[in-house]
Amino acid sequence: MIPPWDAENAGDEDAADKVNSPLENVSVVLVEPRGPRNVGSTARAMKNFGVRDLRIVGEFDREHPECREMSVGAHDLLEAARDFATLADALADVGYVLGSTARPRRRRPSLRADDAARRVVRAAATERVALVFGREDYGLYKDELGRCHDVVTIETSPDHASLNLSQAVLLLCHEVFRCTPEREAVRESRDLGSLASQDVLERLHGEFVHLAEASGYLHPGNRRAMIPSFGRFLRAGPVQTRDARHVFGLVRRLAQRLEEGGRP
User: Fold this and answer.
1) Which residues contact 28 (CB under 8 A, 6 or more apart)?
2) Which helix (H) or strand (E) holds 203?
3) Averaging pLDDT over each range in 106-110, 132-136, 215-219, 247-251, which range is the top one?
């Protein structure tokens, strides 16, 4: 059971004043990377373009000789990198999630790298943003992609489409770095208000499930399809904190009325 979010007291904090550059709000998340060389190369690529927050889902050996060897000039990023047990934990404080995939999905249109970078910069003006990269051999699983607001595919030659993990990180970080001088995009984003973090969306998702159960709409026959559907709905686009608070209050009130035996 997800603990209840204090929707009544969740304010729209202006995070824009807490950072000097949108890049300070950008995190790179590697999901279960296999090679220490890739982790080291990723740290170096991040530092090349001003991105400093590295998060690893799964255990990694920051002292591995090959990891240290490939992180030339970026040992400090390795020292500060954090590891998490799950992707949900790594994204708990994130407002906008961009997943990288080499295989575009029919039901999930992919952004081009330059378009994705502009979205990242706009969101990072006020919120923590995560660039999520999957396993070297398989990428991100379906449920992991379901946690992303958008997905990006880096265009490559059809003659040789595969990219090394750290190369993909470098290319996307470069695109984000190139977009940061677009101050107009940053100013526009500040008018949008604070975005709901992934932790808030997880709690709101739990309230949706609770309401569906209380109303009888959710049952064993549709549960497997319905619960992921709620998640996709909540992550169809970045959600403002004020909007999440309003929806949260409505859903909770409806559930309480149903549990009391009254009309919604």
Assistant:
1) 42, 46, 51, 53, 54, 55, 130, 131, 133, 169, 173
2) helix 198-215
3) 132-136
Quick one: pLDDT at residue 14? 42
Q: Residue 111 is encoded by which pair of tokens?
A: 């952004």
What single DSSP character describes residue 105? B
List of residues 6+ apart from 204 with CB closer than 8 A:
5, 196, 234, 244, 247, 248, 251
At 149 the pLDDT is 92
The Cα 158–Cα 111 span in angstroms is 18
Angle 123-140-204 (CA atoms, 0-180°, nearest 5)?
A: 55
pLDDT at 140 exceeding the cut of 50: yes
Which two structure tokens, joined as six digits, stand for 14?
């202006």
- Tokens for 254? 């409806």
- Strand-pair partners of 108: 105
The pLDDT tens digits of the residues spanning 2-40 come to 344 454 444 444 443 445 789 999 999 999 998 899 999
More confident residue, 190 or 141: 141
Among left, alpha and beta (phi > 0; psi -120 to 50; other), residue 115 is: alpha
**Using CA atoms, how far apart are residues 100 and 58, in angstroms rounded to an integer?**
18
